[in-house]
Structure formats: C-alpha cells, structure tokens
Amino acid sequence: MRKLCITLFILLFASSAYAGKMKVVSTYPYIASIVDHIGGDRVRVNALARGDFDPHTVIPKPSFISKLRKADVLIINGAQLEIGWLPPLLKQSNNPAVNPGSSGFLDLSTHVKLIDVPKSISREQGDIHPDGNPHYYLNPHNIPLLAKAISEKLSECDSRNSSYYKSNCRNFITMWNQKTSQWDSKLAALKGKQVIEYHKNYDYLLRYYSISLAGTIEPLPGIPPTSKHIESLEKMISSRNISFILMDVYNPDEAGRHLSKKYGITFVKLPHDIGAVPEANDIVSLFDEIVRRLTK
Ligand SMILES: [Zn+2]
Fold first, then answer.
1. Distance from the CA of 28 to the center of ligand 1, in angstroms?
2. Counting C-beta atoms within 10 Å of the first and last residue's C-beta, which end of the chain has fewer, N or C?
3. How many C-beta atoms surround the C-beta of residue 2 within 10 A?
4. Whether residues 199 and 134 fall in one domain
5. Are residues 175 and 234 both part of a single domain?
6. What is the CA(56)–ligand 1 centre distance, in A?
7. Cα 198 to ligand 1 centroid, rounded to whole Å
8. Distance 199 CA to ligand 1 centre (A)
C-alpha cells in the first residue's frame, strides 16, 4: 500500500511538474540549450538529433515522431540542414501545429545573414548547402539573434508568460555578451592565420575573426576527398603557411591527420554541437571549448 502511494505521488508530481508547460521540440541540442535559458521552468524542451553525429544525415528513431506529434512548438536550424531527415518525420507525425508556416514553427536561419549562398544551385554536383552555409550558429555573435527569435516565438505561442520569456532573454543576452567579449579577446590572437577545414562547419566563426580559410578537405560540401583533391591541397599547403587543420568529430579524419603529420600542421578537433565532446554540455561550454581548443 505504501509503495502504491509513493508511486501515485511520484506520478502525480511528475505530471504536475509538466502540466501547463509548453512542449518545445528542437532539431539540434544547441537550440534546446538556448530554449532552456529562455523558457526556464515554463517550457519542456527536447532535441531530436544528438550532438555527436553528423547533423546533415540524422538517423530517425520512432521516438522522434511521437515527440513531434506532441509538440506545441518546433524550432529548426533551417537553411536545409534538416532537409535530409526531417520532412518525412513531420509528415508522419501529422501535427499541423508545427508544420512550416504554422504559428508553432520557427526556422532560425531566417533570422541571420547566410553566407556562401550560391548563384546557381549545384545540388546535383553533390553540394548539400544549396541555400548557403547552414552552420551560422557556430559564430557566437549570431546567438543573441537566435535567442531573440526564440523569445518572440515562445511569447507568441504562450502570451501569458511573455514577460517571463522576454526577461530571461535579456538576462541571457547580457550574460552572453560578457562571455563573447572574453572569446573575442582570445580569438583575436588568430587574426590573419590560415586554416584548412574538413567541412565548412566553422566559416562564420573564421570570417568574423578574420581567420582565412585556405581550403577544405572535402572537394564540395558532403563529398569525401579524392586523391586528386588531396594532391591539389598539398600543392597549396607547400606554398602557404597553414596554422591549423580543423576537424569535426563525425567525419573520417585520416586525410586531415595525414596532412597534419606530413606538413607539421596542428590538427584540431572541434565540437560542432553540444555533446560532440564531453566538455561541451551547454551552449556556453560549447563555445568555451571551441575557443579553448583553438587557442591552447
Ligand atoms: Zn554542412
């Protein structure tokens, strides 16, 4: 009897803890972390994809559909980063409230200026970024824009708590600006340096801090390196002073390690989202860790 009472109490408590909370689903963990800061205890947020896998090709799980079905709000990165995996899940979840164009849907990419928007679409050649580079959130200076868009969406969908969300957003941005000035002063040391990336994950950060991208190990976004492409990279490397090879945690790193060893270039593995490395466990420590790895 006592056990039953305890179980009932836990069940009641658990359901009341969730009662009245707006259910937000985000495609990636970094979005969920910003939502957490702004939504506080009025929102329950779940990220679909994990942060230690390739964000372009997420393997769907049945739980994704049930999360989407129950969601009040869906927040995506956009710029076609989810194009390879989200649309069929949205269709199967059959929740019109969170479909693109509905009031419960937010595409964060519409709130930032995208770079590398191609003049003509070359998807047939393997380019997986036909709307421009979707990895805009890896520049800390873009995060306040995302926080504001999230705060506005939460306020719109749950107007009773609007002043709560807006006040959390102001506090978040104040804290974020303090952190960003620390990151700015550390990254200033890299100004003018030349780097190679595997995939164009860090272009927004590189451009902001005037770090020059000399080449990518992929010949085109999403296309693995060929020996011909590596040969042309090697020619370029021998005529320039490359400081780093930047590598994500999910692509094969043999080519990068080979170039690093052969030419004595520092090889840096960087997290691209929360959970990509153990140190990156929220939106703040994600950038702390990126900056630490770049400047150590
Ligand atoms: Zn990409």
1. 14
2. N
3. 6
4. no
5. no
6. 7
7. 10
8. 7
Residue 177 domain flag: yes
pLDDT, tens digit, for every residue of 209-258? 999 999 999 998 889 999 999 999 999 999 999 999 999 999 999 999 99
**Pairwise pLDDT comparison (201 vs 129), residue with the higher score:** 201
| Distance from the alpha carbon of residue 264 to the mean position of ligand 1, in angstroms | 27
Whether residue 42 is predicted with pLDDT greater than 60 in this model: the reply is yes
> In terms of Cα–Cα distance, which of 90, 109, 83 is closest to 222?
83
Å from CA of 183 to ligand 1 middle: 23
Last residue of a domain, one of 182, 199, 230: 182
Instruction: Report the CATH number at residue 83.
Output: 3.40.50.1980
How does pLDDT run across 254-282, given as a tens digit for each residue?
999 999 999 999 999 999 999 999 999 99
Could you tell me if 191 and 178 lie in one domain? no
Say yes or no to pLDDT of 48 above 90: yes
| Same domain? 142 vs 43 | yes
Place of tokens 């150590």: 296
Q: Is residue 245 part of a domain?
A: yes
- Alpha-carbon distance of 107 to 110, in angstroms, equals 6
Q: Looking at the domain assignment, is residue 274 inside a domain?
A: yes
Of 158 and 120, the one with more pLDDT: 158
194 in the same domain as 107: no
- pLDDT surpasses 90 at 133: yes
CA of 274 to the centre of ligand 1 (A): 16
In the structure, what pLDDT confidence band is assigned to residue 65 with cuts at 50, 70 and 90? very high
**Strand order across the 22-26 sheet:** 43-47, 22-26, 73-76, 105-107
- Please tell me the total count of domains within the chain: 2
Instruction: Give the span between the Cα atoms of 60 and 88, in whole angstroms.
Output: 10
Range(s) of the domain holding residue 243: 187-295
Burial 205-222 (b: 16+ CB within 10 A, else e): bbeebebeebbbbbbebb
